[in-house]
Amino acid sequence: MSNRGGKRENAGRPAGQGKYGESTVTMRIPESQTATIKSFLEAYQRKRERAEGDTSVTEVEVGEFFIPEINDQPTLLPLYATKVAAGFPSPADDHVEKRLDVSEFLIDYAASTFFVTIMGDSMIDVGLLPGDKVVVDRSKTPNIGDIVLAVVDREFTIKTLDHGANKMPRLLPANSTGAYKPIYIRPDTQFEIFGVVTGSFRRFK
């Protein structure tokens, strides 16, 4: 019998010597999310490099990326038509206006949507707090005034899209303390709007 064919023992790159310094696995992801996953991995690698001594970038505002998982059977919860001052309204009061599927409310186009965790506090004045999950839709056309997920010189940031007097794009923070300055996009800046932020959500406990 031939000894040819099949995987050779100890073949391939030794574990821990790849780009990420650890073993890798094969996984299947939606084709529409390929660019998102690649960009996240690049950002993850740069974050690790900074942690090992490169402090050239101090403002890290984006954490984990998540792809939404849409169930075949939506979870429909009661949406009350009246405002609730305190306590919990009784369904017997006939105040239920309709039933709402949270995924349907947050997501317009599942194939182009993903979630990102907020890490910094540069957007707290618009209600985006550290730990919040923001909903990002890559199919939306960004307009002036939109909150966007942008890549600036290979770093992710979430800011409000604007433009200056010269009509060049700029990204505005929303933090009245003055701790963050606008990011001006110059001709030599590597810049891409990765998606439009369409919503956010958080847990309290």
UniProtKB/TrEMBL annotation:
Residues 1-11 have a biased composition (Basic and acidic residues). It holds the Pfam family Peptidase_S24. Residues 78-197 form the Peptidase S24/S26A/S26B/S26C domain. The keyword DNA repair applies. InterPro entries: LexA-like, LexA/Signal_pep-like_sf, LexA_repressor, Peptidase_S24_LexA, Peptidase_S24_S26A/B/C. The keyword GTP-binding does not apply. One of its GO terms (biological process) is regulation of DNA-templated transcription. Residues 1-28 are annotated as: Disordered. SUPFAM superfamilies: LexA/Signal peptidase (SSF51306). CDD domains: S24_LexA-like. Keywords: Autocatalytic cleavage, DNA damage, DNA repair, Hydrolase, SOS response. One of its GO terms (molecular function) is DNA binding. Belongs to the peptidase S24 family. This is SOS response UmuD protein. Serine peptidase. MEROPS family S24. It comes from Nitrosomonas oligotropha. The lineage of its organism: Bacteria, Pseudomonadati, Pseudomonadota, Betaproteobacteria, Nitrosomonadales.
